[in-house]
Amino acid sequence: HLRQDHLPAVATDLGLGEGNAQAHDRTAPSEDRLPAARDRRDDALGLAELARRLRQSRAAVARKAAAASAARVRSLNGRVRGLARSGVRLTSISQATAQSLIELQAAIVTDALTDASEQIQRIAHTTSVRDLAREQAGVLQAAQQRIVNDIARAVTILKGAAGDVRKVASRVTAAEPVTP
Fold it and tell me: How far apart are CA 100 and CA 155, in angstroms?
């Protein structure tokens, strides 16, 4: 809608010309014209200010998020150390339990071999079948009692280990939870 004869008036409206007096004698452009330079400068300044505030706001939000993330990572540090200590304790418990069970197994085998040796010696010194049967009944009762005692010792070892594991687990679950 701009014609060539309106250009000086438009230039003046934009703040670029020498003024309306030196422009053509035509009337001012209609209301649907481009905004005046002053309005555009104000709009540009407003947009620039808005962009600056947005950048500052985004930077502030990013700094705040980074600080919160750093705090969460620091709080995890203590939990990770606690879990590592718990892992060491559990390893120690499992090794001690395995050692006790191996020692129990060694004692069971040693007792069984000793009993077998004694039984063979008694058989060698028995004179009658009746004495042999009586000896065999005594050996079976002793073996039954030994098995019961060995099972009780194994259960005691495992109960002790379970109690120790519960203590470690209760320390881990009692630790402060990480806040998001």
Answer: 11
